[in-house]
Amino acid sequence: MKNVLIIGSTGQIGSELTMKLRSIYNGNIVAGYIPGAEPKGELKESGPSAIVDITNEQQIAETVSKYNIDTIYNLAALLSAVAEAKPQLAWKIGMGGLFNVLEVAREMGCAVFTPSSIGVFGNNTPKDKIRNPRTMYGVTKVSGELLSDYYHIRFGVDTRSVRFPGLISYVTPPGGGTTDYAVDIYYSAVKGEKFECPIAAGTFMDMMYMPDGLRAAIEIMEANPDKLIHRNSFNIASMSFDPEIIYNNIKKYMPDFHMEYKVDPLRQAIAESWPNSLDDTCAREEWGWKPEYDLDSMTQDMLAKLKIRFNK
Ligand code: NAD
What we know:
Helix 3 (57-66) packs parallel to helix 5 and helix 9 packs across helix 12 (295-309).
C-alpha cells in the first residue's frame, strides 16, 4: 500500500499518472491542484483531492499529514515556452516549490519524485549533452536535480527523478512546451486539418509515448535503492525524430494529411539548444528501464485513440 500526493495532478502528466497510481495502489492517492485547475470527471470522482499550491509549504505539510502520505510526485512547473515568458514565476514554482516539497519530505519522511527534462542541456554544447541550459526552464531543472541530490546526500531524503523527453499523449493537451508540436500534429491529422509546424525540418528532439513515461515514473520510485548509483536525474529515451519523420509516419496511415512550416522563433531556438538524442544506459542498468513504444507503434495508437475521441 502506498499513500501518494501528486502536486500538479491536473496537468498533462499528472492527469494520467494519478489515474494509473490509483489503479495499482490501494492507499490514498491524492490529486493536488490549484484553484482554477481543479480535477474534473474521473480524476475528481475516483479518489481524494486537495488544494496544494507548491509555493505554500504549510498546505503541502497539512495534506501530507492528513492523508499519511509516504510519496510525493512533484509535477508542478511552468513548461519551457511559458517559463521563458514568465521566468520569475517559473523559478518561484520550480525552485521555491521544490524546496518546500523537500523540506516537508525531510521533516515527514516522504520519498520525492520530481521530473527533470531534456531542457537541462544547453545552447553552446548541444551535441555534447552537457548540462548547460540558457532557458529559465533548464536552469530550474538543473538546479532541481542538484537540490534533490543534496537533500538525498545531506538528509537521506529518498529523492529520485528522470529527465523526460517530450511526452506525447491523446488524453490531456500539453502545457506549453517546445515538443508540443508532436502532440498537436496528431490532432490536426485526425481532425482533417492542415498542420502548421512551429519547429523547422531537420530539428531532432527526443520524444516518448505517455504510457512509457508513466511506467518510468512508477518504476524508478519502486526500484531497489541499493542498485541506484544515481538519483537525480536519469536520462530515459525511446525515440528521436524531426518534423519530417513524424509527418511522413502519419502520412503512411493518412495519405491526405498535409503539413506546412510556420516556425516559431522562440520554440525553434529552444529546440536547437537541446540534444538530438539521449543515452539512457544508466537507467537501463540501474533500474531496468526499457521503452515499449517506437514512433510507428505510437502513431498507430495515437491515431486510433484520437479517431475514437473525435468520432472519425
Ligand atoms: P503541465 O503544464 O501540463 O502541468 C503542470 C501542473 O502544475 C498543472 O496541473 C498546474 O495546474 C500545476 N501548477 C502550476 N502552478 C502550480 C503551483 N503553484 N502549485 C501547484 N501546482 C501548480 O505540465 P506536465 O507536462 O504535466 O509536466 C509535469 C512535470 O514534468 C513538469 O515538471 C515538467 O517540467 C516535466 N516534464 C514534462 C514533459 C512533457 O513533455 N510533458 C517533458 C519533460 C519534463
